[in-house]
DNA sequence: TCAATAGTACGACAACTATCGTAGTTCGAC
DNA sequence: GTCGAACTACGATAGTTGTCGTACTATTGA
């Protein structure tokens, strides 16, 4: 049953949630890797210093904040940055965060 | 004794701390008001739906993250946004956050 | 000197959250 | 069908944080 995970609509994305999602080092690293790779990538393909279940937790935070989109593909879930939505709603924000020095 | 409160140097400002500081609704509202008013303003001059001590807590978070600078002036403390430092370190970030719709 | 004003410090508490382990689900391959 | 791979869900726990009340400090003014 390809019940997909819920994502907020573009209009529902809240700036506080986006900032909070990006404020965590693990999540920020994940989003930066996603950005560096460019194309969508399986959740597990990006190395993180946490367990699988913690990873799921962080990915849910990013997804529910509207930062990433996840779609099923076989047993994997492919994650992509919601660049269009974020750029439309908060122009310049994503670029500023991603291009910031560590 | 005019011992001043500690502020991080420009180079010490961390993106995670800035994002975390701005991710709270109370703090974001405060920074937006600071920006709207433009000039430095006494801490207490901006209305917040919290008590004095909670306000102090939030202002410390903003100060320690490097988002605002506070200087003593009589019994008051004047708060200003560290726009120069933030723009230098994370170009576009502050503008993107401040201009975001509620 | 005394009182009022503006803010900080500290202790307490509830809510949130980052983490983990374990169990469950879904899909593809054999 | 069965096994493994890739995740998610759930429950527990320790640490963080937003909130408050009270007490304290520093400065101004009467």
Structural notes for this entry:
Chains A, B: This is Transcriptional regulator. Two copies of one chain form a homodimer. The first copy, chain A, is an alpha+beta fold and 102 residues long. Chain A has a single domain, classed as Arc Repressor Mutant, subunit A (Orthogonal Bundle), CATH 1.10.10.10. Helix content of chain A is 47%, strand content 14%. In chain A, strands 1-3-2 form a three-stranded antiparallel sheet. Chain A is globular. The model of chain A has no long low-confidence stretch (mean pLDDT 93). The first copy, chain A, binds a DNA duplex (30 and 30 nucleotides) through helix 3.
Write the layout of secondary structure elements.
2 copies of one chain form a homodimer.
Chain A: H1 15-22, H2 25-37, E1 41-42, H3 52-65, E2 68-73, E3 76-81, H4 83-89, H5 93-98
Antiparallel strand pairs in A: 1-3, 2-3
Chain A binds a DNA duplex (30 and 30 nucleotides) through residues 1-2, 5, 24, 26, 42-44, 50-61, 72, 74-77.
Write a brief caption for the model.
By secondary structure, chain A is α+β, with helices and mostly antiparallel strands. Chain A is built from five helices and three strands, in the order ααβαββαα.
Structural class of chain A: alpha+beta
Instruction: Note poorly predicted spans of chain A.
Output: none
Give the quaternary arrangement of the chains: homodimer
Query: Any idea what the CATH architecture of chain A is?
Result: Orthogonal Bundle
Q: How is the largest sheet of chain A built, in terms of strand order?
A: 1-3-2
| Count of beta strands of chain A | 3
Largest interface, and how many residues on either side? A-B, 22 and 22 residues
| The CATH class of chain A | Mainly Alpha
Q: How does the major sheet of chain A shape up?
A: 3 strands, antiparallel
Strand content of chain A: 5-15%
Helix content range of chain A: 40-55%
Radius of gyration of chain A (Å):
13 Å
| Number of structural domains of chain A | 1
Q: What is the count of helical runs of chain A?
A: 5
Shape of chain A: globular
CATH superfamily of chain A: Winged helix-like DNA-binding domain superfamily/Winged helix DNA-binding domain
């Amino acid at each position: 049953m390809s019940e997909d995970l819920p994502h907020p609509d573009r209009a529902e994305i809240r700036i506080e949630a986006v900032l909070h999602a990006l404020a965590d080092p693990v999540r920020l690293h994940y989003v930066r890797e996603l950005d560096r790779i460019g194309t969508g990538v399986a959740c597990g393909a990006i190395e993180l210093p946490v367990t699988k279940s913690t990873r799921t937790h962080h990915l849910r935070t990013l997804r529910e904040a509207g930062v990433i989109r996840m779609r099923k593909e076989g047993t994997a879930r492919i994650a992509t940055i919601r660049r269009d939505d974020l750029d439309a709603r908060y122009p310049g924000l994503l670029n500023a965060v991603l291009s910031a020095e560590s």
